[in-house]
Amino acid sequence: MDGTEGNAEQPAERSHRSSVSSVGAREVQLKPKHQPYKLGRQWPELLLRFTDAPDDDVATDEPSLQFRRNVFFPKRRELQIHDEEVLRLLYEEAKGNVLAARYPCDLEDCEALGALVCRVQLGPYQPGQPTACTLREKLDSFLPAHLCKRGHRLFAALRGRAAKAGTDEQGLLNAYRKVKEVVSSDSEWEASLRTHYRAYLLKCHELPFYGCAFFHGEVDKPTQGFLHRGGRKPVTVAINLEGVHVIDSREKHVLLGLRFQELSWDHTSPEEEESVLWLEFDGHNEGTPVNRLLKVYSKQAELMSSLIEYCIELNQAAEPAAPQESLTGPAGGPGSSAPPTQRPQLRRQSSVVCSRIQHLSTIDYVEEGEQIKRVKPKRTTSFFGRQLSMGQGSYTVVQPSESLEQS
What we know:
Layout: E1 16-21, E2 27-29, H1 36-41, H2 43-50, H3 55-60, E3 64-69, H4 75-78, H5 84-99, H6 107-122, H7 132-137, H8 145-148, H9 152-158, H10 168-177, H11 194-205, E4 213-220, E5 232-239, E6 243-248, E7 253-259, E8 264-268, E9 276-285, E10 288-297, H12 301-318, H13 322-325, E11 363-368, E12 371-374
Antiparallel strand pairs: 1-2, 1-3, 4-5, 5-6, 6-7, 8-9, 9-10, 10-11, 11-12
């Protein structure tokens, strides 16, 4: 598990917080009032409640205490940090998420980030050192593992993904060569690594899911083939101060990305059925505006719903302070998104951070009594009342037409 429930005292004032995690990638961010020892004693109960782990794994699983980035710490506050050790901690965590593909990145971005890792670990670039062969031996220290596997580019090309010519290590070496060094007034190279830590974080800030909390779940696959086979696919739900992203755990790309202004949500936890996080958003079906509903099956649905609600509360509380901060620094609340010019990868064709709605099975529906019924593409009303209702760009439901044809 990775998430936070309820309130926390001044959540955005600290860049880091303690978290408890286990070998099975189940994580919990702690509040100031939590006592790690007591939480460790309750760990088996938490696993049974919020995960599908087998009983044998629950009995043998041991949690570990880790120091991690505060989910509620806004990106704009990171830009104000000058302490090199704090920047190093933020850099190490971001690097770990990139290398583990928890932050899906396009190849160009992976090479740019990997080049900064080369600079931190190997020092300034020197012509002829290192060579592409040298980088190949440690490639998984600079690039995500799925990009280091042989044949990755061939499979990517066959599956229609964008792939550049050349080897991974050569592209990394070219990016390493372009890393800029800061020269002081006496023309000596700056000894501090602070500049490169900050450059790495700034590059990660372009990712819409940076600094998120991770949850595990499943979504329905679209029916395919003559036999209309469906099934489910495992996903990671990433939630931060900007919005919600549903990421394909196997393919390492985004399936759905929504800002809080673009969604309504709720969760259900019936006793004899699976817990579900419901996400509602605008869409089109054959050119007709509809409301779409996505079901995310997860025992952590309650945690996700609580975190979404709390992030929205933080954003709304920070809105009045935004005009004052614009006089001394970057404008915008904790959830303000970066200008489009700072996110070039979002405009790339087939970018891994672009939504792939066609890979999801969603429901077009109309509210009738207390039942959700599938309908042919018509204008519908919103089923959920939980949404960000303040400010410009708020989610607005598609109004119902006079007659709805039910399928």
